[in-house]
Amino acid sequence: MSAGTAPALEKTPQRNFPRQSITVPVDLIALRSGVPENLPGRCIDISEVGVGAVVPAEMLVGQSVTVELRLPNFGVPVRARARVRYQSRLRCGLEFVGLPAEQREMIRYWVHLRGSRPLDSGRRNDGPAKTGAPSVAAPLAVRPRRRIRVGRRGFYVLIAFILALSGFGCWQWQRSWNEFEKRLRISEEGLRVSPEIIEKRILTKVEPTYPEAARAAGTEGVVVLDAVIAPDGSVKRLRSVSGPDLLVQSATEAVQSWKFEPYVERYGGTAVEVETTVAVEFRLH
Fold first, then answer.
1. Cα–Cα distance, 65 to 30 (Å, whole number)
2. Burial category of 182 from C-beta neighbours within 10 Å (exposed 0-12, middle 13-18, buried 19 and up)
3. What does pLDDT average to over the chain?
4. Are 202 and 93 in a shared domain?
5. Does 167 have pLDDT greater than 70?
6. Containing domain of residue 97, as a range?
7. What is the rounded (10 degree) CA torsion for 231, 233, 237, 239?
8. pLDDT tens digit sequence for 119-147
9. 206 and 278 Cβ atoms separated by less than 8 Å
10. How far apart are the C-alpha atoms of 276 and 227, rounded to whole Å?
11. Do 115 and 205 belong to one domain?
């Protein structure tokens, strides 16, 4: 087995981005037979191009997954698509795919803050150098490491990203709440009631007169009107939505005289103004 795995290790490209050790939970979502499956695991190292994780599940090289984790002391989670690059027992390497610039900047900033001595880039540290090879270890020891500098612009981008995500969460919550209130609140136009419900509450219905001009022209069809029904059941306001022009006036005059059973609010127990849609059909035969 060792003879078969050695070439694969030699072909593994060196990492050009600093990475840091980290121990945080990570959630992976992978498709299993077309069904999303949540795979909890533990993140063990991270860089701006990918993560190393321990996942108690079989992963296929090249498989696409969704990764979610939280960096310590950062309230904004890292969410990204990734591709499985390798798996050895329970440990796997995940490469980010299409990571947004803001999240990349956030990871880079966190790695920089974590320490100026990241993990070795792709080489294993097997202990002190052997006695016979001091000339190889010495240059590596004195070679200056490249330091990651986060400029003022990058810092501002990171702060803006954090604020934007926080604001987006609040905006989504506020939008959902507003939609909920919109369905329950009685606005100036009244509570919206479906045509099926309002049709059952008609007490007096006057049939429209077929206009002679429309009859002579052979015009027929359906006129749709937006209607506002007052608390006493009378028609307060009408607005044409669609239908043949020759038939709209006659339909409007007929519906204007209709009478409805007052719509009573479920919780307040009082009659309220409602808005609905009324359809009037004209047929020659």
1. 5
2. exposed
3. 75
4. no
5. no
6. 2-119
7. 120
8. 444 444 444 444 444 443 444 444 555 56
9. no
10. 5
11. no
In a domain, 30, yes or no: yes
Quote the number of domains for the chain: 2
CATH number at residue 277: 3.30.2420.10
Is 91 a domain residue?
A: yes
The CATH number covering residue 83 comes to 2.40.10.220
Give the pLDDT of residue 73: 78
Q: Which residue has the higher pLDDT, 211 or 79?
A: 211
Counting Cβ atoms within 10 Å, is residue 55 exposed (0-12), middle (13-18) or buried (19+)?
buried
- Burial zone of 51 (CB within 10 Å; 0-12 exposed, 13-18 middle, 19+ buried): buried
Last residue of a domain, one of 119, 134, 152: 119
3 state SS of 158: helix
Asked if residues 208 and 269 have their Cβ atoms less than 8 Å apart, the reply is: no
What is the pLDDT averaged over residues 187-192? Answer: 55
In 3-state terms, the chain is what percent helix, strand and coil (to 5)? 30, 35, 35
Q: Quick one: 7 and 110 in the same domain? A: yes
User: Looking at the whole model, is its pTM more than 0.70?
Assistant: no
Within-domain flag for 141: no
pLDDT at 39: 84
Question: Last residue of a domain, which of 119, 151, 178?
Answer: 119
Rounded Cα gap, residues 109 and 152, in angstroms:
12
Collapse the DSSP code of 108 into the 3-class scheme (helix H, G, I; strand E, B; otherwise coil) and give the result: helix
144, with CB counted inside 10 A (0-12, 13-18, 19+), is exposed
275 in a structural domain: yes
Instruction: Give the model confidence (pLDDT) of 93-117 as tens digits.
Output: 999 998 888 888 888 888 888 765 4
